[in-house]
Amino acid sequence: MALSARLEMKQGQSLVMTPQLQQAIKLLQLSNIELSAYIESELEKNPLLALETGHRDAAEHSEDRQQESPSSKEETLAAADTKIRETDNTSDLDTDFENIVPDASIGSTSYSGELGSIAGSSNRTSNKTGNNSGVTPNIEAYISEDLSLHDHLEAQLHMSIADPASLAIAFNLIDMVDESGYLMGDLEELTGRLGVDSQKVEHVLSILQTFEPSGAFARSVPECLMLQLRDKGLLDKKYQTLLDNLDLLASHKIGKLKKICHVDDAGFKDMVTTIRTLNPKPGLQYGSVTVQPVTPDVIVRARPDGSWHIELNSENLPKVLIDQNYFSVISKSKKPDDGNNFLNDCLQTANWLVKSLDQRAKTILKVSEEIIRHQDAFFLHGVEHLRPLNLKTIADAIKMHESTVSRATAGKYMATSRGLFELRYFFSSSIPSGTVDDTHSSESVRFKIRKMVENENVGAVLSDDKIVSILRKDNIDIARRTVAKYRELMHIPSSVQRRREKKMAMQDET
Fold it and tell me: Backbone phi, then psi, for 320, in 5-degree steps?
């Protein structure tokens, strides 16, 4: 059969991921912190976007914009056009967003955007440092930064080592120290990379292990404690033996450990007391890491009639608006065709961003409402009444895909009268019950196990088999291996180890 080129017309259907749909999917799965960073980047690229911060400031900024000379407006537009052409961030697609993602009816909410004209954007006003600028200076910008662990170690380095080759090794070893003060990495790999003798590296490391904080540059917990004991002048053969058998102390095998260390009860108690005064993570006292507090995306309050009031947290919703006044002013001014194209692209991008933010807010609220409807008993009575729930149940109820529900619950938090919970906390597998057509949430079963262990005493420590029998009395059909798995996930020791810990605690009290 001869090969030839020919034209054919075929009809078919396919799903195309347009840039607008990709943007909607991306915004849905972002957390509130990631969303704020994304909005800030969009505000810098699009002159028609504005962040609503106050009517008075916006009105003043709008007047300043309208009083600009035509030449300055054209210069602003030309600069923005050049910037946008350099980044090649234009799009001529025109897809109906409401046809891509179905609308969701919502109750009480704060929308993330609003189409229409606004007074202006105070986000792009210049921050002047003069006293008459009306801008409050950021005091936090003048606070000195905490001294990091690496800076503290490098400050001691130049007072202890002068040889250039040793300094190079020391700098590499400092880079291998984590925030807790432990030396991470392979010394043999470092030796081969630097082309030096392994004894030279060990010699430099022995010098660095004398630095403050005591215990830094250790490669294990026993070595970290050994360095601190040596710094205190307490390290002897008995302490070294205790540190070499630290796993026996963790498992509370006291009798065996005392026999190995050749000490009596009083001597062993003094040694353990000294060990407890040491710091297993000495590096954490330097360079405190800034922890970003978790803020809820959804707030749930109980109404007097027993129903639930559900609303989105307005503080986490960036109110992005489109500056129609600025668009109309620039459109009327004389500018080249490229400026027209750039301005229209900016308007289209701004419209899509605002719609995507609104749709994101509606989807999160709709998913939250359905979660609360399924987990009503949890909000009324507590964790023991948490029901089994999966993504498919919520997706079928709100007529969305499971992947959409998964994105809407990832990194989103709900503030309730019982605390702050991630939305994914309410999804848990089911455990069969002894009765027909009844199941229990795995999270509620773990809660029951934890409460049993917390309420046990030294004379009645519950084994896994005993926990299984108690749960089966409550119509929870669970296997022993499942109880052991849940116990390990909650970092609960075995019954033997718990009995030893309780006995040791009683001896310490006496």
Answer: -90, 125
CA 445 to CA 489: how far, in whole Å? 13
CA distance 429 to 440: 8
CATH T-level topology, domain 430-509: Arc Repressor Mutant, subunit A (1.10.10)
User: Which residues sit opposite 416 in a β-bridge?
Assistant: 419
CA 448, 452, 453, 455 torsion-angle sign: positive
The pLDDT tens digits of the residues spanning 185-219 come to 888 888 888 888 888 889 988 999 898 888 899 89
Helix/strand/coil (H, E, C) string of 244-263?
A: HCHHHHHCCCHHHHHHHHCC
| Residue showing tokens 């609360």 | 372
Closest CA to 423 of 480, 366, 464, 479: 366
- The span from the CA of 80 to the CA of 67, in Å, is 19
What integer pLDDT is reported at residue 508 of this predicted model?
Answer: 61
DSSP 3: -
Q: What distance in Å separates the CA atoms of residue 140 and residue 409, rounded to the nearest whole number? A: 33
The residues spanned by each domain of the chain are 20-126+323-357, 149-285, 298-314+359-426, 430-509
The bridge status of strand 439-441 relative to strand 430-432 is antiparallel
Instruction: Please check the confidence at residue 121 and state whether its pLDDT lies above 80.
Output: no
Q: What is the pLDDT of residue 457?
A: 80
How many other CB atoms are found less than 10 A from the CB of residue 76? 16
Structure tokens that stand for 92 in this block: 């001529």
Mean residue pLDDT across the chain? 77
Q: Which ranges constitute the DSSP H helices of 333-401?
A: 337-374, 376-381, 391-398
DSSP line for 81-123: HHHHHHHT--------HHHHS-----SS---SEE-S--S--GG
3-state percent helix, strand, coil for the chain, nearest multiple of 5:
55, 10, 35
Interatomic CA distance for residues 46 and 124, integer angstroms: 11
Q: What is the secondary structure of 191-251 as a DSSP string?
A: HHHHT--HHHHHHHHHHHTTSSSTTTTBSSHHHHHHHHHHHHT---HHHHHHHHTHHHHHT
In this predicted structure, the answer to whether residue 224 has a pLDDT above a threshold of 70 is: yes
User: What tokens appear for 501 in the block?
Assistant: 């810990």
How far apart are alpha carbons 127 and 136 in whole angstroms?
Answer: 9
Angle at 31 between CA 26 and CA 32, to 5 degrees: 115
Q: Which two tokens stand for residue 411?
A: 């990194």
2-40 burial, b for 16+ CB within 10 Å, e for fewer? eeeeeeeeeeeeeeeebebbebbbebbbbbbeebeebbe
The C-alpha atoms of residue 196 and residue 204 are separated, in whole angstroms, by 12
